[in-house]
């Protein structure tokens, strides 16, 4: 499969970070923090040291709950308010694992209560408020500040563009997703890493028989299970085209594969009632041998699990079009600037200065060091756990790095895909019925 130049740039970045993680740093030094994270000794400084009129800014993000970068993000905000005491910041957060955050964002955006700065997804999730003019295109602001613009790697800005070609969200860190495996559990049970479907199903049968959860995922918040099985079954081309132009039969194979895993005892017995947090806790506590997650999850696991984990691409499902070496990843989130804030003379300058500070190379390094994400700036992230380095290596060697399927379909369609996981695996619906329902939802949503 030919890669795009954009993908090659991503791979070059990931390779450079992998080498940096194994070697030394630049002029700044860092010291290991508990849990394998890195605590940079240099402090991010706001780009503009100037006084602003007294004002209050609300920043909404997903750096809340148990997010590994929660404290790092708070410290970045504190740096700004220390330099600008006239600016008060309302650090409004929710966990990304709480589906309510999407509802909150949409409600705020539709009711005129939008935050001054919003950290949210890029792509289909943002189309509604982008098309409604609720946020400002950042192109002119980026082009007008060479230092800020040059602090980003070009690939990050390119991947931040919406369909209209404009940049509305300033990226912070990227991510990769994959099949995380507890190597210790596999070794103790004489199992090979699940690099193909046969090895995966062998592991599931062996572990399930011994009372070990093979693959910890929930049914309701089944984001990662859907993403990986559809990419594995449909391949990059089949996944990326979504559902508007017809149904790719390989999407049905993804749901068939989920049912096969369920029938073999792959999932937690309470998968129908747990959420992503509990699912992650099973893996963190060593009760599960595998989980499907993103790079951000690593920092939240206990030390023993983190030190014994690796991450690999999800294997190709039977008869699927995937290569077995395609992964979910990219720069899928960023900071949006509210149009109402931009038009408010009392807030505009302070909000732009805060936006630039939050996405400066020093701030990006601090956040990436905490959550293990791929930085949107050319900074070196050192001191990470081996599993994070494995993730960088996996991404560098991938045949393709693809945005998740929820960026290819509407939120309503993805909700429908999620809602049908449990009925399909329990045999109450067929995979064909599930995908046909999702197709109808997508068609209705686009009318």
Question: What is the compact description of this entry?
Answer:
45% of the residues lie in helices and 14% in strands. The chain is an alpha/beta fold and 447 residues long.
Features of the shown structure:
447 residues; alpha/beta; 6-stranded mixed β-sheet; 5-stranded mixed β-sheet; 20 helices; 13 strands; disordered N terminus
Per the principal axes of the C-alpha atoms, what is the gross shape? globular
Structural category: alpha/beta
**Terminal CA distance:** 34 Å
Cα-atom radius of gyration: 21 Å
Mean pLDDT: 88
Biggest sheet architecture:
6 strands, mixed
Into which percentage range does the β-strand content fall?
Answer: 5-15%
Task: Determine the fraction of residues in helical runs and give it as a percent range.
Answer: 40-55%
Task: Specify the number of helices.
Answer: 20
Task: Please tally the β strands and state the result.
Answer: 13
Low-confidence stretches: 1-48
């Amino acid at each position: 499969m030919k890669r795009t130049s954009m993908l090659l740039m991503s791979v070059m970045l990931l390779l450079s970070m992998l080498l940096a993680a194994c070697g030394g740093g630049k002029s700044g030094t860092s010291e290991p923090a508990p849990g394998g994270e890195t605590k940079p000794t240099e402090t991010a400084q706001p780009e503009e040291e100037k006084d602003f009129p007294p004002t209050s800014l609300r920043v909404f993000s997903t750096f809340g709950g148990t997010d590994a970068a929660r404290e790092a993000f708070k410290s970045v905000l504190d740096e700004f308010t220390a330099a600008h005491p006239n600016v008060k910041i309302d650090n409004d957060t929710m966990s990304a694992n709480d589906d309510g955050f999407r509802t909150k964002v949409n409600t705020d955006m539709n009711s005129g209560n939008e935050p001054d700065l919003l950290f949210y997804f890029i792509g289909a999730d943002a189309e509604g408020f982008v098309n409604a003019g609720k946020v400002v295109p950042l192109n002119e602001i980026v082009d007008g500040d060479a230092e800020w613009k040059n602090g980003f790697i070009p690939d990050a800005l390119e991947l931040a563009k919406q369909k209209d070609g404009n940049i509305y969200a300033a990226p912070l860190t990227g991510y990769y997703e994959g099949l995380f495996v507890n190597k210790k559990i596999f070794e103790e049970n004489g199992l090979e890493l699940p690099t193909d479907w046969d090895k995966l199903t062998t592991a599931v049968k062996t572990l399930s028989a011994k009372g070990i959860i093979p693959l910890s995922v929930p049914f309701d918040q089944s984001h990662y299970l859907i993403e990986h099985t559809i990419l594995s079954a449909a391949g990059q081309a089949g996944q990326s085209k979504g559902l508007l132009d017809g149904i790719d039969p390989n999407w049905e194979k993804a749901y068939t594969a989920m049912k096969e895993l369920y029938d073999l005892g792959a999932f937690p017995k309470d998968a129908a009632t747990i959420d992503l947090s509990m699912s992650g806790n099973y893996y963190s506590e060593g009760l599960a041998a595998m989980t499907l997650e993103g790079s951000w999850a690593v920092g939240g696991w206990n030390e023993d699990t983190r030190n014994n984990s690796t991450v690999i691409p999800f294997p190709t499902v039977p008869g699927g079009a995937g290569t077995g070496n395609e992964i979910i990843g990219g720069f899928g989130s960023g900071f949006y600037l509210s149009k109402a804030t931009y038009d408010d003379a009392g807030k505009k300058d302070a909000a732009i200065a805060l936006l630039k500070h939050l996405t400066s190379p020093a701030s990006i390094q601090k956040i990436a060091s905490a959550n293990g994400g791929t930085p949107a700036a050319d900074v070196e992230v050192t001191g990470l756990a081996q599993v994070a380095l494995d993730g960088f290596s996996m991404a560098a060697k991938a045949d393709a790095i693809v945005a998740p399927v929820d960026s290819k379909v509407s939120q309503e369609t993805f909700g429908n895909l999620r809602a049908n996981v449990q009925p399909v695996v329990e045999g109450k619906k067929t995979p064909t019925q599930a995908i046909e329902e999702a197709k109808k939802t997508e068609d209705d949503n686009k009318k």
